[in-house]
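Help needed: design a sequence for this.
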């Protein structure tokens, strides 16, 4: 009768001695092609159209943050990106206003519509960043703002009677503007990206790239990439989040060739060969913003809006927000603390 427990003890001892091989993550099998020949049309393919109709009704949120020293053309670039006056500067900002003593956060919301698709765009500007003599910890207000948006979303999510669609104010993308010095990244750039790359999708861009020659630009891009790698700074698209081989191949090309995008922004139109183009007029000609021979603005626009916008949102939700949420609930032993305000909300909801 004693053999059972003794055997199980031996087995336990054995399992302690022999480490179990690490299980590989389960990869879903491809569906087997059984009975795939349908006798007639069912209409499964209409699910795509159904999803399209639903999402078209609700519209999309996209929140983009711009960070960098003043004078690097942040506002202009955002206006160029969305081909409309969406930045803080173009929305009645007083140009005589002095540089803020500390970093401020200014968010401006717009609704942009194109081809029947509505997007609620929020541009978050950070005036005063990197403009002081002592820029120690000047990324803290920015990190605080990003985490506050996660907190706001989390509080809505854990409500008993929660909204069908929680307003999304989380920062999906942070364009970090690097000064076109042609030398190397400043300690401030490295510190900012080290701290913030863990909480937000950072896309580094070299501003005012028309101030460098082609050779200087290529060399500077390589140097920036090297410095980011040496300092262990992960920018978007992060290697570990590539879902399959196709994504990896596409993103590797972007990481190794395009990043950081050397861009020129302009919201002024000029006539070139009978066409109206966005550009910057110089004594020796017009720099065409959307011409790939002149700068990489078109690559940045295609990357942020035309190919990776949905992915930026998904990485924000599934990785950055999820990390914040897990830590927050862990530290708190479950749910966020109930404030008087949230209690009142619950009562009103009930």
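Sure. Designed sequence:
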């Amino acid at each position: 009768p004693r053999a059972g427990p003794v055997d199980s003890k031996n087995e336990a001892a054995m399992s302690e001695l022999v480490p179990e091989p690490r299980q590989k993550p389960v990869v879903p099998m491809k569906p087997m092609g059984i009975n795939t020949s349908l006798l007639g049309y069912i209409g499964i393919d209409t699910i795509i159209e159904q999803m399209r109709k639903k999402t078209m009704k609700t519209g999309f949120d996209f929140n983009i943050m711009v960070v960098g020293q003043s004078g690097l053309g942040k506002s202009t670039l955002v206006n160029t990106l969305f081909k409309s006056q969406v930045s803080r500067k173009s929305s009645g900002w007083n140009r005589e206003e002095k540089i803020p003593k500390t970093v401020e956060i200014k968010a401006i919301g717009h609704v942009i519509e194109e081809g029947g698709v509505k997007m609620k765009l929020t541009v978050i500007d950070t005036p005063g960043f990197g403009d002081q003599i002592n820029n120690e910890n000047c990324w803290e207000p920015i990190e605080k703002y990003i985490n506050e948006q996660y907190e706001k979303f989390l509080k809505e999510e854990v409500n008993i009677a929660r909204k069908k669609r929680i307003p999304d104010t989380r920062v999906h993308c942070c364009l970090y503007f690097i000064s076109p010095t042609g030398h190397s990244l400043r300690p401030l750039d490295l510190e900012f990206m080290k701290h913030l790359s863990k909480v937000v999708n950072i896309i580094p861009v070299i501003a005012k790239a028309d101030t460098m020659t082609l050779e200087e630009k290529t060399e500077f891009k390589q140097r920036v990439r090297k410095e980011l790698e040496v300092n262990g700074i992960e920018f978007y698209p992060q290697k570990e989040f590539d879902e399959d081989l196709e994504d990896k191949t596409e993103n590797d090309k972007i990481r190794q060739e395009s990043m950081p995008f050397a861009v020129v922004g302009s919201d002024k139109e000029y006539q070139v060969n009978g066409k109206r183009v966005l550009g910057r007029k110089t004594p020796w000609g017009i720099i065409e913003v959307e011409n790939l021979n002149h700068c990489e603005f078109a690559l940045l626009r295609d990357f942020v809006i035309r190919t990776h916008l949905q992915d930026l949102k998904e990485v924000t939700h599934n990785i950055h927000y999820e990390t914040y949420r897990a830590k927050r609930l862990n530290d708190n032993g479950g749910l966020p603390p109930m404030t008087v305000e949230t209690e009142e909300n619950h009562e009103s909801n009930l």
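Residues 11-16 have pLDDT under 50 and may be disordered.
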